[in-house]
Structures are given as structure tokens and as C-alpha cells.
Design goal:
This protein folds into two domains: 5-93, Elongation Factor Tu (Ef-tu), domain 3 (Beta Barrel); 104-177, PRC-barrel domain (SH3 type barrels), CATH 2.30.30. It is 9% helix and 49% strand. By secondary structure, the protein is mainly β. The chain is elongated, with a radius of gyration of 19 Å. The chain has a seven-stranded mixed β-sheet. Strands 3-4-5-2-1-6 form a six-stranded antiparallel β-sheet. The protein has four helices and 13 strands.
Length: 179
């Protein structure tokens, strides 16, 4: 049975080709890049409406990014056609995380509300930057950026698809950005 694309976890995105032998550079979206990107590992990409398996045939790391070869991809032209593709794995292959930590896909779709019950919106993405992670919440007036820190995100319950926040005064207005 083929994996269901929506039930898979993103582990990277093909950035561009590397060299003339069909290798690609991957922007990893995992905390475990050396585990995910190793010779023989099977990844999946969505192409033409179908979920396509891809097996890694070679790998090396350059500046913390994997440079990988994929079985059946032997030329720069074939590799260039893969640029921009998301690479995913079945969620069943994810390792268990310590208590209080979450995979991004577990948070996307969660309802966000304040401790007083005020509906803020729905998490549509999780951005990770040098300074930490933040929830991108789709609110009624556009996007709201909420720092993903314990002082603000008081309750995170992916099972119930709910996040309760205690935003400091002005945070919801200050961090709102037009959609």
C-alpha cells in the first residue's frame, strides 16, 4: 500500500542540482539529518499527483546540508527537474520526541486560543529561525506570529488539536502581518 502524502512528515526540500552527475543539494527540515539522509534510505516525493519513492544512492554533507544522489537520477537535467520537491517519510518512521517537544506537522492545524477562551486562529505553519521557532497563525484579520516558548504557549495538546496561549500585552496586535 502506497503511503498517503498528507500523513507523511517533511524531512527536507531539494534546493538545486550539484555537479553534473545528478546529485542534488537538500535543505534539511529535520533535527536528524544524518539519520534521514544516508545511503539506502527511502524518501518520498509528490510528483504529478502521485507519491514517488526515491532511494538515496550517495550522500555527503557540505555546510550541514546533504548532497545526495538518488537511484535513477544520473544527469544534471534529471536532477534539475527535482528542484523544489519536498522529501517526506511516513510518520511511523519518526522517532519519539521528549516530553514537551513536538514535530511541526503535529502543530499545524491546531486551534489557538487565549487562556480566557478568545479564539486567535489556526496554526498554518511553524517557522524556525536563528532566534527560535514561532507559530504562524491564520487569524480573522490575517497572519499572527506567536513565539513558540513555554511562557506564551502554556498548553500544547496536538491530540485535541489545541494550543492555549498567554500573550503579553500587545503581542497579538504587534505581530500581526497582513495575509
Amino acid at each position: 500500500m502506497a503511503p498517503v502524502w498528507a500523513e507523511m512528515a517533511v524531512v527536507g526540500r531539494i534546493a538545486r542540482t550539484h555537479g553534473i552527475r545528478g546529485q542534488v543539494i537538500v535543505n534539511p527540515e529535520t533535527d536528524f539529518p544524518r539519520e534521514r539522509f544516508r545511503v539506502g534510505a527511502e524518501l518520498f516525493a509528490g510528483r504529478g499527483g502521485a507519491v514517488q519513492p526515491m532511494r538515496i544512492s550517495s550522500v555527503r554533507f557540505h555546510r550541514e546540508r546533504p548532497v545526495i544522489g538518488l537511484e535513477g537520477v544520473e544527469t544534471m537535467t534529471a536532477a534539475a527537474a527535482l528542484a523544489g520537491l519536498e522529501l517526506r517519510i511516513p510518520a511511523s518512521q519518526l522517532r519519539a520526541l521528549p516530553a514537551g517537544t513536538f514535530y511541526h506537522h503535529d502543530l499545524i492545524g491546531c486551534q489557538v486560543e487565549t487562556g480566557e477562551g478568545r479564539h486567535v486562529g489556526v496554526v498554518k505553519d511553524v517557522e524556525t529561525a536563528f532566534g527560535g521557532s514561532r507559530l504562524v497563525v491564520e487569524g480573522t484579520a490575517g497572519e499572527i506570529l506567536v513565539p513558540l516558548v513555554a511562557d506564551i504557549c502554556r498548553t500544547i495538546d496536538p491530540g485535541r488539536r489545541r494550543i492555549v496561549i498567554a500573550p503579553p500585552d500587545g503581542l497579538l496586535d504587534l505581530n500581526a502581518r497582513s495575509g
